[in-house]
């Protein structure tokens, strides 16, 4: 395992993902973890992430130099690089010389361990105020920039490496190559973290955990729950029952997709509960977003518990149903504190927010995986493309894409508009280019239009196409005008009561991806 020490959450997650992309298993640990504890985990290598602090700030996270004396290969990036420099006797100055964004890096030692095979001048992504002016004794300076004399250094004998910039971001052109050079050449690791191994390992773990008992899994139609269910099904077969709650807030074709495609691909035992009446009744008269979310979460639990009781009643003699499968992902674990002491940024709830006091033991086979890895595992398990590469869809469904009260009529209308947008995006081959494209109905807004010979007074539909790597930040997608035009024409022609289509051009932050 490569341990990524977290001096700034976003950087650390991205680094961990890049290490996995290099087929080496990585985990994130907080910067507050004592070095002794880090070493006790016997890491194959350690990476120190960048972070927002200056090494000179009072209270800035530090690092005991014993990490560098343990014979473990270490790679410091940005803040991690400066920590490494100061801990080992180099000089880091608060020069006021700030570098931010794309920067030209001059490589002084083209054949060095990190820079082997990369150009003498390369574009890297910088983000720092302090700068290293002298490398620690015994280290070779391998790169510099106009402002920073020591932008990278290495000591092959001690297997210690550092760069001032961020190799993990895409703007650093040879970033992945340099990271791989550290992993393979510097630390001598071999790329063995493969999807096949993940599946094998998880199946064994699930069997060990569940034994001969039974499990249930709430399917949302999303990729995470589908892959989690498929993994558990592979491990325990028909002792898993999947429950799909149709709350009436699903998109067009969604229920059918779960009923047909998913079952056909996995052979899983499925229980479909039609609960749309119940959800709509509970949502009647409610337009506050948070209240909607709470109501949907609450109703979901009730329906789910009922379904669980029915499963037990249907086969009372069988082993007890003691496990609940959840599609919790690694970023959820890290962001929720994850038992590693990282800051609690947000508490995630899966399966529409099941409460802690549910009498189930959790099975979370995706706890170690990033989203792209989940998709790969899904592929490995033979799930259809439409499920594996599906856009993320929120648990509360279309209920939080109607700004205003949720009614059956409005849902039907939004469902049509959404289906058109999805159809056109797929036809244009754009599914892989965008992260997701929520389609939002502004039910409380009306505007004047003209159609045929008559005046209309209808609702606007908002298109919210975004590109993102992890949904934590996002940018609005620059969709081709002709695709936007086709979507707009079709929606205004084909969807009753909609006379306007507008495009959301807000990044996240400040806007969230969903409107509610
Ligand atoms: P926001 O709107 O916070 O969304 O930028 C970030 C990502 O999370 C999805 N999302 C949800 N997913 N239950 C879910 O399972 C929810 O309650 C929920 N709310 C937002 C959203 O679609 C986007 O991918």
TrEMBL record:
The active site of this protein is located at 78 (nucleophile), 166, 168
Q: Give every GMPS ATP-PPase domain span.
A: 193-390
Record field: catalytic activity = XMP + L-glutamine + ATP + H2O = GMP + L-glutamate + AMP + diphosphate + 2 H(+)
Where ATP binds, per the record, is at: 220-226
Query: Which Pfam families does this one have?
Result: GATase (PF00117), GMP_synt_C (PF00958), NAD_synthase (PF02540)
Provide any one GO MF term from the record.
GMP synthase (glutamine-hydrolyzing) activity
**Entry's EC annotation:** 6.3.5.2
Q: Which PROSITE patterns match?
A: GATASE_TYPE_1, GMPS_ATP_PPASE
Signal peptide interval: none
| Annotated pathway | Purine metabolism; GMP biosynthesis; GMP from XMP (L-Gln route): step 1/1
Q: Which SUPFAM superfamilies match?
A: Adenine nucleotide alpha hydrolases-like, Class I glutamine amidotransferase-like, GMP synthetase C-terminal dimerisation domain
Query: Which keywords does this Swiss-Prot/TrEMBL entry list?
Result: ATP-binding, Glutamine amidotransferase, GMP biosynthesis, Ligase, Nucleotide-binding, Purine biosynthesis
Name of the top EC class for this enzyme: ligase
Subunit structure as annotated in this protein's UniProt entry: Homodimer.
The UniProt entry, under PANTHER family, shows: GMP SYNTHASE [GLUTAMINE-HYDROLYZING], GMP SYNTHASE-RELATED
Described function: Catalyzes the synthesis of GMP from XMP.
The identity of this protein, by name, is GMP synthase [glutamine-hydrolyzing]
Q: Which species is this UniProt entry from?
A: Actinacidiphila acididurans
Gene label: guaA
């Amino acid at each position: 395992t490569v341990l990524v020490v977290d001096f700034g959450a976003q950087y650390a997650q991205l680094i961990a993902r890049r290490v996995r992309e290099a087929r080496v298993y990585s985990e994130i640990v907080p910067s507050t973890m004592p070095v002794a504890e880090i070493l006790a985990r016997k890491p194959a290598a350690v990476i120190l992430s960048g972070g927002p602090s200056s090494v000179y700030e009072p209270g800035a996270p530090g690092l005991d130099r014993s990490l560098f004396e343990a014979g473990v290969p270490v790679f410091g990036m940005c803040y991690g690089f400066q920590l490494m420099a100061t801990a080992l006797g180099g000089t880091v100055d608060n020069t006021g010389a700030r570098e931010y964004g794309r920067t030209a890096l001059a490589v002084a030692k083209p054949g060095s361990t990190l820079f082997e095979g990369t150009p003498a001048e390369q574009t890297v992504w910088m983000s720092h105020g302090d700068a290293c002016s002298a490398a620690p004794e015994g280290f070779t300076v391998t790169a510099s920039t106009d402002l920073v004399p020591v932008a990278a250094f290495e000591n092959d004998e001690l297997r210690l490496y550092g760069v001032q910039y961020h190799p993990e971001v895409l703007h650093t052109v040879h970033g992945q190559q340099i990271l791989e050079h550290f992993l393979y050449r510097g630390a001598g690791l071999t790329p063995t973290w493969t999807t096949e191994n993940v599946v094998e390992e998880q199946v064994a773990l699930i069997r060990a955990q569940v034994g001969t008992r039974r499990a249930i899994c709430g399917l949302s139609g999303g990729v995470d729950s589908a892959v989690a269910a498929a993994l558990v099904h592979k491990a325990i077969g028909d002792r898993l029952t999947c429950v799909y709650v149709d709350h009436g807030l699903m998109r067009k074709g969604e229920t059918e997709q779960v009923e047909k495609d998913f079952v056909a691909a996995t052979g899983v035992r499925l229980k479909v509960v039609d609960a749309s009446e119940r959800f709509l009744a509970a949502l009647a008269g409610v337009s506050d977003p948070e209240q909607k979310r709470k109501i949907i979460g609450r109703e979901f639990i009730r329906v789910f518990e009922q379904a669980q009781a029915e499963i037990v009643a249907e086969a009372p003699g069988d082993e007890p149903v003691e496990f609940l499968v959840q599609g919790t992902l690694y970023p959820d674990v890290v962001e929720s504190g994850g038992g590693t002491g990282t800051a609690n940024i947000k508490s995630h709830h899966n399966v529409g927010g099941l409460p802690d006091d549910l009498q189930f033991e959790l099975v979370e086979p995706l706890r170690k995986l990033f989203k792209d890895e989940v998709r790969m595992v899904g592929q490995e398990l033979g799930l259809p493309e439409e499920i594996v590469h599906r856009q993320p869809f929120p648990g509360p469904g279309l209920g939080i894409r109607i700004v205003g009260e949720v009614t059956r009529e409005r849902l039907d209308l939004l469902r049509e508009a959404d289906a058109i947008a999805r159809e056109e995006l797929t036809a244009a081959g754009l599914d892989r280019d965008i992260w997701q494209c929520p389609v939002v109905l502004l039910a409380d807004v009306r505007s004047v239009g003209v159609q045929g010979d008559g005046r209309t007074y209808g609702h606007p539909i908002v298109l919210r196409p975004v590109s993102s790597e992890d949904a934590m930040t996002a940018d609005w997608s620059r969709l081709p005008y002709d695709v936007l035009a086709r979507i707009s024409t079709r929606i205004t022609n084909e969807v009753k009561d909609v006379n306007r289509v507008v495009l959301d051009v807000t990044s996240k932050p400040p806007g969230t991806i969903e409107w509610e």
